[in-house]
Design brief:
The protein is an alpha+beta fold. The chain folds into two domains: 126 residues, Roll (SH3 type barrels), CATH 2.30.30.230; 297 residues, Fumarylacetoacetase-like, C-terminal domain (Fumarylacetoacetate hydrolase, domain 2, Alpha-Beta Complex). The chain contains twelve helices and 25 strands. The strands form seven sheets. Strands 7-6-21-13-14-16-8 form a seven-stranded mixed beta sheet, with helices on one face. A five-stranded antiparallel beta sheet has the order 4-3-2-1-5. It has a five-stranded mixed beta sheet with strand order 9-25-24-19-20, with no helix packed on it. The protein starts with 33 loop residues before the first strand and ends with a strand.
């Protein structure tokens, strides 16, 4: 595994940006996630790379134009100064590490007065910024890697027969399908209720119209760094070095359309209308204190060699806490569930190794979805179809209304963070979308 602890993980370090020292902040000095933003909202300024520190965003284009950075850190900042972070993704772990360490030193409370003065003019409030996708996403692949989600949805779709309905290949490899990159959107953009074919219960012919079972999927998104050449697989031991960072991801899903179109090739219209991601890209370096051991499912067959590595077993899992919240139009937000990425059946390096083992080439800025993240308890479900048992057990909201699935006007928010004694809290911000009526 490539990410190790260094001085940037010192939980006692403080920033001269006071909001970065506040209890519960998502963006302390030890985080330093990347985004593409325009400050402030509504100006004619071009989008450019930025870094979160407390409630501020640091302009990397402005920083690259100063003499505050040298060497690899300067080259990395210059690569992040444009309208996408693809150039920074392509530079690889050494450049990412150099920039992180330089930013940490410049934003730390013991930075010189001259450094602080030069940096202050590059800060602007996050609340006033406009965000866009962090990378130009050439390709998007969505995985299916939670055995708890697989079991829950199997019971909903086929009944609780007492038989394990997880497909045999689930325990042998990370399953995935190729999604639609063009409909990946940034947090804050609304989602139009999609139309398609569905087969009403008891009917023999499909009907066309808006989905009646609009759902969300609580996921993480993985943005690829350098990538690989066509025909050259990425070995599992090297896969982590391909991860630029992680975002929150909502894989919006039309369940009734999905149920009708899934056979024999998988989801199509049920998934291609929108996928939301959060603006802030949290690096693996920031997440280093939250690694955990990973073990294959007890019922799994022996791992094939290309999916087994001592480093992955020792530190391949990540304890990222995740929540889904629903806010009806004009109402108060209500938490739907809370879970952790540590429950996932396959790790990010294994997803990358499997994706490329046949020779598929990943490119800088490509997006991988981890698949729905559900835990073993009912309170840890990552979708409405699990929470409401396919709509048969509707959820009652604080205002007395019920939800089997999402209604027009509903806002769906995903949040994520890591937290434990002795380490700085690392947050992901929010991934938000509001459902608009079909047209």
């Amino acid at each position: 595994m490539t990410t190790t602890l260094d001085f940037t993980h010192d939980s006692g370090a403080r920033s001269w940006v006071e909001s970065a020292n506040a209890a519960g902040t998502d963006f302390p000095l030890q985080n330093l996630p990347f985004a593409v933003f325009r400050p402030p909202h509504g100006t004619s300024k071009q989008f450019r790379g930025g870094v979160a520190i407390g409630d501020q965003v640091l302009d990397l284009a402005g920083l690259a134009a100063t003499a505050l950075l040298q060497g690899d850190a300067q080259k990395a900042a210059a690569a992040a100064a444009g309208t996408t972070l693809n150039g920074l993704c392509a530079q690889g772990p050494a450049a990412w590490r150099a920039l992180r360490q330089a930013l940490f030193a410049l934003l730390r409370s013991d930075a010189s007065a001259a450094q602080q003065a030069a940096m202050r003019v590059l800060l602007s409030p996050q609340a006033l910024a406009e965000y866009t996708l962090p990378t130009r996403i050439g390709n998007y692949t969505d995985f299916y890697t939670s055995i708890h989600h697989a079991r829950n949805t199997g019971r909903v779709m086929r009944g609780d027969t007492g038989v394990d309905l997880v497909s045999p290949n689930f325990r042998s490899m990370p399953i995935a399908y190729h999604g639609r990159a063009s409909s990946v959107i940034i947090s804050g953009q609304s989602v139009r209720r999609p139309k398609g074919q569905r087969l009403p219960p008891g009917d023999s012919a499909p009907v066309f119209g808006p989905t009646r079972r609009l759902d969300y999927e609580l996921e993480l998104g993985v943005l690829i760094g350098r990538g690989n050449a066509l025909g050259e697989p990425i070995a599992l031991a090297d896969a982590e070095a391909q991860v630029f960072g992680i975002v929150l991801l909502n894989d919006w899903s039309a369940r009734d359309i999905q149920a009708w179109e899934m056979a024999p090739l998988g989801p199509f219209l049920a998934k291609n209308f929108a996928t939301s991601i959060s603006p802030w890209v949290v690096t693996l370096a920031a997440l280093a204190p939250y690694r955990q051991a990973w073990e294959p499912d007890a019922q799994a067959p022996p791992l094939l060699d290309y999916l087994d590595d001592a480093g992955v077993r020792a530190r391949g899992a990540l304890d990222i806490q995740l929540e889904a919240w629903l806010q009806p139009a004009g109402g108060e937000a209500q938490r739907l569930s809370q879970t952790s990425f540590r429950h996932q059946s396959w790790t990010v390096p294994q997803m990358i190794a499997h994706h490329t083992v046949g020779g598929c080439n990943l490119q800088p800025g490509d997006l991988l979805g981890t698949g729905t993240i559900s835990g073993p308890e009912a309170s840890e479900a990552g979708t409405m179809i699990e929470i409401t048992h396919g709509g048969r057990q509707p959820l009652t909201l604080a205002d007395g209304t019920q939800r089997g699935f999402l209604e027009d006007g509903d806002a769906l928010m995903l949040r994520g963070w890591c937290e434990r004694p002795g380490a700085a809290r690392i947050g992901f911000g929010e991934c938000r979308g509001v459902v608009l009526p079909a047209v």
